Structure prediction request, 680 residues.
Amino acid sequence: MTGTLVFDPLIPWIAIAALAALALAGVAMALWRGLAGWGYRALGALVLLGALSGPVYQVEDRAPLTDIVVMLEDRSASQMLSDRPAQMDQAAEALAAELTARPNTELRRVTVRDGEGDAGTELMSALASVLAQEPSARVAGIIALSDGRVHDMDRLPEIPAPMHMLMTGRATDWDRRLIVRNAPAFAIIGEPVTLTLRIEDSGAAPENDGTARLEISVDGGEAQSFGVPVGQDIELPVTLPHGGRNVIQFAVPEAAGEITERNNTALIQMNGVRDRLRVLLVSGEPHPGGRTWRNLLKSDSSVDLVHFTILRPPEKQDGVPVGELSLIAFPTRELFLEKIDDFDLIIFDRYKRRGILPAIYLDNVANYVSEGGAVLVAAGPDFAGADSIYRSPLARVLPAEPSARVIEEKYRPAITDIGGRHPVTADLQDEESWGSWLRQIDVDPQAGRVLMSGVDARPLLILDRVGEGRVAMLASDHAWLWSRGYEGGGPQLELLRRLAHWMMKEPELEEEALWAEATGQSMRIIRRTLSEEVGDVTVTGPDGHSANLPLDEVSAGRFEALYDGPQIGLYHLAEGEHEAVIGLGPAAPREFEQTIATGDIMQPAIAPMRGGVVRLEDGLPAIRNVREGRPAAGRGWIGLTPRGAYETRDVTQSPLLPAWLVLLLASGLIVAGWLREGRR
Prediction:
């Protein structure tokens, strides 16, 4: 029970102040005029003003409330290193017992886990959440058991009481980590790209020779080892071996005494891209499709095009010497013998033998294909004649033989069953919307796969692999009708792009491929094949454990499965003869970027209320009561601020000046003043 004097004015305070000023002026005038009753008048005015202010004696029935102490237990990944879990468990139980035994005290224990994804330790978010549920007037202190590696200090809430950190870890802890300072997402195939790495020691690192071993492996292959300096930036030139995703793993062997090896590895996933596509287009004679081919290739800024066109055939008899048929001599020897390996793709568009390209040149083109080159033949009526390039050394790499028949008939190109599964022609567009073509060369397939058909299901587009290279044959010279919009046109540009990329061995257009797409620690495993069925895929994790997953067909030729990786690191995939690698999550999660315990990060939360940082290896500190605003930590102790909070159960008010007493006092004083002045 507590009593206090409160005021409940009958009129606004400003009005009371005005009346007080008026009464003071009247008393001053009476004093100036020498009236003997001025004192009684002043006392009467004071009684009236006191009555207007409404003085009340208030009695409250209060119930004291307990003080609340918040204890944050950091159970993040970095707290699992070394003997930190044992340190924290022992300290948490001892503190809980001591705080629970304190009079008028309640304990709130909060467990802090790793944040979602790779957010790290979100201790401040957990603190803000628990403070939002408790009255700040009851919080007597906050104690955090942590290594101090907090990653959400930008969410620091308002701290209502002293905050202390009991720091886990040892003063002798040290760690070595691998840092990737610069790693581009893309690189040009065959050209070196510079990566910047750094090996850094932190904490009480032992004396050494200043070097460490760095192991490098590509796509999970055998690692190469190098000696590199510690504490210096290392510029490492890397050349990507193939297009598509390249997974490069850097690792530093675990050193004796370091507290973790989780940050000794770095995974870099870089996409290999071609600088420019170098294309040689050989046109046999001018025709409507020739300009279309040229325009399509020139419209792509990533294509370097060399176009060789025979504008005037030498068999034309008009008396012009052969040596004067062109303004300059075309460098056929240089192109087809010396520089042929510089081209990524050679296109023969309605070309036939005229003696301009000797057989040795065409034989060199065939060798170029066998050794990894690519040739696309767009066949016209010339391919069916006696001068066809099929009747040359190039025949040994061509996938189809002409029957000498040219079909002049309107038809709509169609995708075959195997073409519906092949990435070059799958999902091109709705076939029903394609325009018609008007000519097709009848050919007899000798090798490869037929992806598109024409008149009476005759082969129209054939793809084949020859040695290390690839060949495509389009048995028509009327593809240009699509680009002109004839009967609605068709996907000529997309078809040509896919053909070129397939012949360039781009991974996304391989008909037999296995790869995975990662999202966090989950992956979507994709197997593309021309077969009707595939086997299970074997997933091998960073720890060597394997799991077999069945694949479900989601579309023609595409099988998929979802897998959640239990660990962060490099995973190996295998299905039959096909293998792939993928990295899940960062090789060194945020929790392991810095692992040495520190109190510096949490100083913005600890310093304002004069809290302290204590190492648990020095022993558990004593707990004292301190007044608000005083130092809350010292040598071997930490302080809590008792809040003295209470709950008001009942309030009773009694007026100090009853109305009858006010009337009696005021009238008596006024009459006394009148009598005093009248007697004079």
Summary: The chain has five domains: 2-63+648-679, 66-170+601-644, 174-274, 277-311+343-361+374-503, 513-584. The domain at 513-584 is CATH 2.60.40.10 (Immunoglobulin-like).
